[in-house]
Every structure is written in C-alpha cells, then in structure tokens.
Automatic annotation (TrEMBL):
Residues 664-694 form the 4Fe-4S ferredoxin-type domain. InterPro entries: 4Fe4S_Fe-S-bd (IPR017896), Asp_de-COase-like_dom_sf (IPR009010). CDD domains: PsrB. The lineage of its organism: Bacteria, Pseudomonadati, Pseudomonadota, Alphaproteobacteria, Sphingomonadales. SUPFAM superfamilies: 4Fe-4S ferredoxins, ADC-like, Formate dehydrogenase/DMSO reductase, domains 1-3. This is 4Fe-4S dicluster domain-containing protein.
C-alpha cells in the first residue's frame, strides 16, 4: 500500500508546479494575528477625481474598500465604482508588461524609443492626451515637461466633460466656474435634466447631504423634470417626463414666473402646472432653493440655472475647476485634425481611450495611423492600446503613491496597500519618463516632493487621515448677469439621450465583472443595456419589448433591443454609454453596443428590424400587489406621518427582547434609498459571492445575497427602491422544511445556513416568500468569466473569514456573521459588552438608509427605528415575523398651486 501510495504521489507531483517556500513572520508584529484586518486610508479615482476610501487589509492583501469619513467626497460611504475598484486590482486581464514592436520589452527600451523619435529639443510634434487630471503631482510633472519642452502639447479629455457647465457659467457670470450645490441647506430643489443622486464623482457626497436634509422636519421638496427615469427622478416628490424641447420650455416658463423679462411660451397643461408649482415653491424658499441643470443640457440651460440661483440666493458655491480648464471637446477635435494632417510626430495617450469614446466624426483610429509613433499607458487592454506601437502598464491606485483632488478640490494622499503585482508604474512616473529616459519608478518621492510644504509630522497626519487639511479652494464670488434661456428645438425625429452607465460609467469599468453583473437601478439589466422608449409610443409604433431597433444618425448607427420603460418621455430614446467594447478582454468584449458612435447627434431615426435581441434582467415586474398602503405614504404639508396598523395574528409573540444574547435586526429606510447598488457590490466583495456570467444570469441563477427591487406606484411615475436581503424571520418558513436541518435559527435571532449539511433539495428556497435564497448550481468559484486569462489572482481578494462555497449548497445573507463574530470575540476577550457591528451593506450606503443592531437594547438605533410611525414588515400578514423591516417611502405633497 505504501508503494502504491508513493507511486500515486509521484505521479501527481510530476503534474503540479514545484513547491514554493512560504516564509512566516520571524517576529510577528504586535497586535497582528493571521486573518486579522487592518485599516488604511487611501484614495481611488473616478473620472480623474479622488474619493477617499479605507482599505481593509488582511495578511498583506486588500480584501475590501469602505468609505473614508474624513474625505468630503465619500464621508464614510462608497458607491458602486469605489467598491468595484478593488476587483480591478486582482483582475487577470490587467496589462502586466511593457509591449512594443519587438513584443515584450522593458521600460528602458520604451523610453529609448520615445526619446529617439523626438525630432526637436523644443518638443514640437509631441502630443500628450490624458483624461481629466486633478493630481497635483501629475500636474507638476506636466509643468516640468512644458518647461523643458515648451512646444509639447497637452490635451485633457473625458467623454463626460464639464464643457457646457463651464460655458454656461461663463455666459451667466463671466467666469468659467463649476457650481457646488449644498443640498443639506435646501428646502426646495428643482432638477432639470440633472441626476445628482445618480452615478458620478459627486454621488456619495450629494446623496449623504440630501438624505440628512430629507430626515429633517419639515421635509424638503424635490422637483425633477427629465427625459428618462433616473435615481433622482425616482426619489422626486413631483416628477415630469419631458423631452429636450419641453425642458427648454420649462426654463422659459420658470423665467417668466420668477420675474424674468420674457413671455411664457405655449406648453402642454401638465408642464404649465409643474412650472407654476415649482416656481411658487422656489420663490417661497428664497435663500434655501436650488435649481440644478444636467451635464448634458446645453450651455444656455446652465446659464439659466445660474441666473435663477442668483435670484433665489441659492445655497450654492462656485469653484475654479481643478487642473487644465480648456474646452475638452474642442481641444480633442483640434488634436485629431492635426494628427490627420501629419502635424503630430509622437502621440502619448495616458489613461484615456479616444479610439472607443471619441466622436466618430474625428476618426481617431484613422488619425493614429498617421502618427509615426503612438504610445498608450493604461491599466487594461482597450481599443486605443490595440492600435498603439508601444503599450505601458499603469499600476492600480492601490499599488502606488498618488494624490488626487476631489470634486470640491480637497487634496488627498493615496498610499499603496500592496506591493506592485506586475512591471507597472504610476502615471506620474510615466510623465517623468517622457521628459527623462533615465527616470525610474519613484512614486513616493514624486508625491512627497509635491507636498514638500508639509513637514514630516504634517505629512504623516495627511497620510493617516487620507486628506490634506485646508486644501480645498475657496469659493469664488460671482454676480449673475442678464437672463439667458435655452433655445426650444423642434422635434423632427426622436431625441437621443446618451447617459453614463450606472455600473460601467463611460466604459472605463466595462472590464469589471462585478460591475457588469450588477443590475441597472432602473431597468435591472445586467451584462448589457437596451434602448429605453416610452411604453405608449412603442405600442403605437408596433415595437415589441426586446425587438431589435436600428438607431441611426447620419452614417452612424447601432442596433439595440427596445425596452419600454416607465417614466420615459415621448419622442426620446435613451441609451447607456460604456458597452460595445472590443480588444478589451473577455469580460467587456462583445457586450452591447457602443453608444459613443452616436455622440454629437441630437436626433435619431428608429427602424424596427423585426428580430429580437438578448436582454438579461433580474426583475421583470415592477408593479406591487397589496403592499402599497404600507410602503408608500403621501404626506401633506404639516401633516404627521400616519402610523401603520399591524396585522392581527394568532402566532406567539416575538422573541424576548431582554434575552441575554444580542438580538440582531435591521431596518431599511426606503425614503432615502436611492437604488445606487453600493450595498449589492459591498455584499459581494465582503462575502466572496462569485460572478456567474450572462448565460447563468439569463437562466435566473443570480447569486447576489442582496437585491434592490424597484417598484412603480402610480401613473405619475412615482417610484421607489427596496433593498431585500434575508429577512431573518423569527418564524422562518425555510427551517421546518429542510430535511437535514441545514437551515437553522440561533439564540441571537439569526437564520443560519449550515453549508456542510446542505444536500441541495432547495425546499427552503421554494418555501421562502421573499425569494432571497441562492442555490449554487455550479462550482462558480472555479468557473471563470475571464476567458483564457489565468484567474488565480482573483482568489487573493477573497475574505478569509467567509467560507468559499462549493457547488450544490444554498446560501444567503448572514447579516455579515463574520463581523458579528469578530465583535463578540473582542467583547469576550476584553470583558466588555458587544460593541457596534456594521454590516458591509450598511457601511457602503451613502444615505445611511440601513440601520443594524440589537433590538434587545431598547435604546439602540435599530430599536428606535422600529418605533417610527413609518415602520412596516414586508408580507407581514404571512406571520413570518421578519427581523429585517422597513420604513415607508413618503412623498411631500406640494398642495395647491
């Protein structure tokens, strides 16, 4: 037997990699135990802006990102983009080595190629194209380049820019400034085509301040006029779906009502009524009233908003834009024209992807073909990388020293949380290399040089805190000039609205599997997006849901499945940016269509093809049956919130609240839940939830432990969001039906799932009225969505305190049992009561909608929430007595005009 065993072992050993040494701590750092978590302040960027995060690191591996309380752009919370940034670190699709004409190369070879090509000492013919740069260190390196090579050309460009915002501010105030609203000081907000609660660098901060004001009494009032339903529109007290022509009419009506010297145009009755009520409330709330215009609105609309805010003495500041302040679209157009003309000798693209997202009229791919030397520095392969002569790998933000400014201008020092995985460099190192071929990777020295004004003590404080104190610019004084109004466009064809994807942004997150598999807050689509149309208009044009339609503007067209969406304005087709990628890796390639191919078009034609296209959605029905009176309340001005009547029951009372053990429970306030899905991805990162891919999602095998349902309430497009984790029912229907007692209850009120007992009968799933249990049909932990890439790096992200589940077991929300256990172990070791436990979803929520704690303590936050008059339980009449309960969504009724 020993010989047979020895032979078998020899056979196996011959097919496996050689053993590698593992070096233990010689002297274990004090207070450090294997698997223990340390927290470090750092920063991750979105669209060039930095947002502070706290990195949770165990055994030298970052496993989770949470918000940084000291940073004004995050305030202790996260959004989907901050959460998914962690997966980018471990993504096997990342660029790992320098590539060039000879194949795999070195940084020295690439530097030699760049500097050999430079034909003049002044830098003529060299162009650097970057994304938005707010990093003081990168800007310092750019200025060094300009001093050394005065003729070098720099163009900063983002697909989602501030051009119209700055132009509108200049029309109204004479200065190119950015508005910074203060929603915490506003009693009335009017959003015209704006989605401040939607995706973007400002989402977390705006949502936090808005939610704080929302909880105050009397509650504020939110008016929203927009072409397509957004997160902000979903939370409106009064919303109207308007096409761009009627949005312009709304501005004219408001100007007339607010005292502008203009005549009110003819408009539909609902629009006239909406404008009258909004104008009345804005005027009555002078000093605490805000008018917001959307990024995609014309400059004249932003000028009107600036005029109105000045008239209303709005709670709003004006700041200078960070970094270069040129007109991005115009600068990119000029660069492309010079490339076509052969005036550019060397093009260096740094963290931008113009081949994918630049307007098609520029033919950027063709322009690159006219440039003798093209170099692209990027974290991931993309369309621009594929056409470049040289490719330089950029390090992940968690691997290097960096600095960024937030949307308000606050500077933050970003420290690395892990050593570089690959032969990559920071963006500041790449800029230094352009000027000096001998430059090496010294991101710490470069950032420290930028902040040489900080002594060692101040530097350490800034690194630990994650922000540089008093680094935000002071607001600028402005005086609004004469009234400017947007032109009213004719509706000869369907208006086109290109919106940033709430999961992929402008396409920069398309390679991220967590982002692809996270549902769109409005349509609930994953792994792709449809074209959104008005439901009645689709019926009139005989376009079926899911039917492929050709959307054309001039010579450009894309084909997408049509989707009838509540809250969509007639005559408007809305498409999401970020899809239609190629040469970008297995996760992104071939998913959806590239909306940027239609950028610049104001109107499009729609042609049904008669064929159907694939759409993958996690929610098919948005209507509610029998729950409306509980989850939705209309509150008139000055009216008290009516208390909900509980259903009578013959079942025993709830568990004793004075039990010796903590009795864990959760409440979710749907009045401030904005449906952003930060909680969904936070749960995925915390609990090792696998990505299963579009085919499995289409089969209905979603593995997320938490979902956010959207419900439509009325014909006025009133809608809301409802996060649904496990209810942890005291009378759990899943428990008595399990033949092996895998679904059990513990003394602290938790409904637990014992994985090593589960035999996969799925009777518990069938008996759950809330449909929150997930069955692991396959061994998803070993089924890769990353194609041929070696995805072993993904395992390094996994939380060591959470079991990685195998095929054939049922899983669900555990209230982050591992965090509860850690708190209880600490309390036991120190002889103290169990301290505060914060679940992953609760930590992520930008509006603090989720409250968790022990209801055995009557003074706990969760106990107080359950005494709120808006408190209710989902499907309460079933008698399951859930520990997860809700506070109802309210609408602040505006009364009579």
């Amino acid at each position: 037997m020993r010989l047979i065993a020895g032979g078998a072992a020899a056979t196996v050993a011959g097919c496996t990699p050689p053993n590698q040494k593992i070096y233990p701590y010689v002297n274990q750092p004090e207070g450090t135990l294997p698997g223990s978590i340390r927290r470090y302040a750092t920063t991750v960027p979105l669209a060039g802006y930095g947002r502070g995060v706290t990195g949770l690191v165990t055994d030298g591996r970052p496993i989770k990102l949470e918000g940084l309380e000291t940073h004004p752009a995050s305030l202790g919370a996260t959004d989907l983009f901050a959460e998914t940034a962690l997966l980018d670190l471990y993504d096997p699709q990342r660029l790992q080595t320098v590539g060039g004409p000879p194949g795999i190369a070195s940084w020295a070879t690439a530097a030699e190629a760049i500097h050999t090509r430079r034909s003049t000492a002044g830098g003529e013919g060299i162009a650097i194209l970057t994304g938005r740069i707010t990093s003081p260190t990168q800007l310092r390196e750019l200025n060094r380049l300009r001093r050394r090579f005065p003729a070098i050309r720099h163009v900063a460009w983002e697909p989602l820019d501030h051009d119209t915002v700055l132009a509108g501010a200049e029309m109204a105030t004479g200065k190119r400034l950015l508005p910074r609203p203060r929603p915490q000081d506003a009693d009335v907000i009017l959003a015209i085509g704006a989605d401040p609660l939607g995706p973007g660098p400002d989402q977390i901060a705006f949502a936090r301040h808005w939610s704080e004001r929302r909880r105050a009494s009397p509650p504020p009032r939110l008016y929203v006029a927009e072409p397509s339903l957004t997160n902000t529109g979903a939370m409106a007290d009064r919303r109207l779906a308007l096409d761009p022509a009627n949005l312009a009419r709304l501005a004219h009506l408001l100007a007339a009502a607010l005292g502008g010297a203009t005549d009110a145009p003819d408009a539909p009755a609902p629009l006239v009524e909406f404008a009258a009520k909004a104008a009345r409330d804005l005027s009555q709330a002078k000093g605490r009233a805000l008018v917001l215009a959307g990024r995609s609105e014309p400059a004249e609309m932003h000028a009107f908003a600036a005029w109105a805010n000045a008239l209303l003495a709005a709670p709003l500041d004006w700041i200078e834009p960070v970094g270069d302040t040129g007109t991005q679209a115009r600068d990119l157009t000029g660069l492309a024209a010079d490339m076509h003309a052969g005036a550019i000798d060397t093009l260096i693209v740094l963290e931008a992807n113009p081949v994918y997202a630049a307007p098609p009229a520029l033919d950027f791919a063709g322009a690159m073909a006219q440039v003798p030397l093209t170099v692209t520095a990027s974290q991931f392969p993309n369309e621009t990388v594929a056409l470049s002569d040289w490719v330089l790998p950029i390090s992940h933000p968690l691997e290097e020293w960096n600095d960024w400014r937030g949307p308000d201008g606050t500077a933050s020092i970003a420290q690395p949380l892990v050593q570089r995985f690959y032969d990559s460099r920071a963006a500041s190192d790449v800029l230094a290399l352009i000027g000096d071929p001998a430059a090496t990777a010294e991101s710490l020295r470069r950032v420290r040089t930028t902040w040489a004004n900080l002594d060692d003590t101040a530097w350490k404080i800034a690194v630990v805190a994650g922000v540089v104190p008093d680094s935000a610019p002071s607001p600028q004084p402005v005086t609004a000039g004469s009234l400017v109004l947007p032109p009213i466009r004719s509706a000869d064809a369907s208006f086109l609205e290109i919106r940033p994807s709430p999961t992929l942004w402008d396409g920069v997150r398309a390679n991220n599997a967590w982002a692809q598999e996270c549902p769109d807050p409005i349509s609930k689509e994953v792994w792709g997006a449809s074209a959104r149309l008005n439901i009645d208009e689709m019926r009139e044009r005989a376009i079926g849901d899911g039917e492929l339609i050709r959307i054309a503007a001039g010579e450009q067209s894309i084909t997408l499945p049509a989707r009838g969406t509540s809250g969509q304005a007639r005559g408007v087709v809305t498409i999401m940016a970020g899809y239609g990628r190629h040469d970008s890796g297995a996760v992104a390639d071939g998913i959806g269509e590239n909306a940027w191919r239609l950028s610049g078009a104001q109107a499009v034609t729609l042609t049904p093809t008669g064929e159907r296209g694939p759409t993958v959605s996690t929610q098919g029905v948005f209507a509610l049956d029998g729950e409306l009176e509980k989850i939705f309340r209309v509150i008139a001005p000055g009216e008290e919130v009516p208390e909900k009547k509980h259903q009578p029951t013959l079942l025993p009372n709830h568990a004793a609240k004075d039990a010796p053990d903590p009795q864990w429970a959760m409440t979710i306030d749907t009045d401030v839940c904005i449906g952003c899905n930060a909680c969904v991805v936070a749960c995925q990162a915390e609990n090792n939830i696998p990505v299963i891919g579009p085919e499995e999602m289409d089969a209905g095998r979603d593995m997320h432990w938490l979902r956010v349902d959207r419900y439509v309430i009325s014909a006025e497009d009133v809608t809301g969001f409802q996060p649904v984790p496990c209810m942890h029912c005291e009378k759990a229907p899943c428990e008595p039906v399990c033949p092996v007692e895998a679904s059990v209850h513990n003394s602290e009120g938790l409904n637990l799932q014992v994985y090593n007992r589960c035999i996969g009968t799925r009777t518990c799933e069938a008996n759950c009225p809330y449909k929150v249990r997930r069955f692991n049909f396959f061994d998803y932990s070993s089924r890769s969505v990353w194609g041929d890439a070696d995805d072993a790096s993904i395992t390094a992200q996994r939380n060591p305190n959470v079991t990685v589940r195998d095929r054939g077991v049922m899983e669900k929300c555990t209230y982050c049992l591992q965090r509860i256990s850690a708190a209880e172990h600490d309390a036991d070791a120190n002889g103290t009561p169990v301290g505060k436990v914060v679940t992953a979803c609760q930590a992520a929520c930008p509006t603090n909608a989720i409250t968790f704690g022990s209801i055995s303590d009557p003074d706990s936050a969760v106990s107080r929430k359950k005494e709120d008059p808006r408190h209710y339980a989902m499907l309460e009449d079933l008698g399951t007595k859930p520990r997860t309960t809700y506070l109802a969504r309210t609408v602040n009724d505006e009364g009579e005009a």
